[in-house]
Amino acid sequence: MFAKSTHMTYLNTANIERSTAEVEYHPLIPFLPENAKVLFLGSFPPQRKRWCMDFYYPNFINDHWRIEGQVFFGDRNHFVDAEAKCFRLNAIIAHCQNKGIAFFDTSTAIKRLKDNASDKFLEVVEPTDIHALLKKLPHCQAIVTTGEKATDTICAYMNIPEVPKVNTAVPIPDTYNKDGEQLVLYRLPSSSRAYPLAFDKKVEAYKKMFDQMIS
Question: Counting C-beta atoms within 10 Å of the first and last residue's C-beta, which end of the chain has fewer, N or C?
């Protein structure tokens, strides 16, 4: 689901309302531009207390939107509102609609085993129906992951025999888009600052993927 209006909210209010201290349901609706060629699938959003906007990669200290700013505009702060310490949501949505970049996660419900944003402490309660997402993305060429948990979850769910190493892609068995092209699972380095790789190296890796998939 997506709308051309950048004033649309991407919060899934029904899921937020039914979430409990025990089980969290995904707080965002899938962002699925029909022209998308790339679908980023993470594990699950961080706790809302860590958000600076109501969209994907909402943590201000996560560098995903700085990486995309550098890749597409030559400016790591293109999507950054430094004064407000948040990201420029309208600009992000317009950019992703224009370039064809979709977002969701591999889990629709989880339990947090610890009070932090680490994937290793997430227990999956309900996995995402990835095939249903892909039906809404007829031109998708790649599912992209940036973390070990999301990568392992997709490999198990889609019967991918080989877990891709960082900066590599593997074909997804029996999965083709409307144009008859076989989809791949492409793994990138995490945009989290906890991931031990220089920002410029991450930019280089993301640019290579984008150049291959949406140029």
Answer: C
Helix or strand holding residue 14 (H, E): helix 13-18
CA distances in angstroms from 158 to 63, 173, 187, listed in the order given: 28, 7, 15
What's this model's pTM, rounded to 2 decimal places?
Answer: 0.93
Q: Which two tokens stand for residue 35?
A: 């022209």
In the chain, the percentage of residues whose pLDDT exceeds 70 is: 95
pLDDT band per the 50, 70, 90 thresholds, residue 8: confident
Count Cα atoms within 13 angstroms, Cβ side, for 160. 23
Looking at this protein, which amino acid is placed at residue 11?
A: L
Angle between helices 89-99 and 64-73 (to 10 degrees): 60
Residue 24's alpha-carbon distances to 45, 89, 207, in angstroms, are 10, 24, 33
pLDDT at 135 over 60: yes
Confirm if 14 and 58 have CB atoms less than 8 A apart. Answer: no
The domains located in the chain, with CATH, are 13-214 (3.40.470.10)
pLDDT at residue 118 above 70? no
Alpha carbon distance, N-terminus to C-terminus of the chain: 23
Token output for 87: 């990201």
C-alpha 88/C-alpha 82 separation (Å) is: 10
Helix (H) or strand (E) holding 99: helix 89-99
Over residues 93-110, the pLDDT tens digits come to: 999 999 999 999 999 999
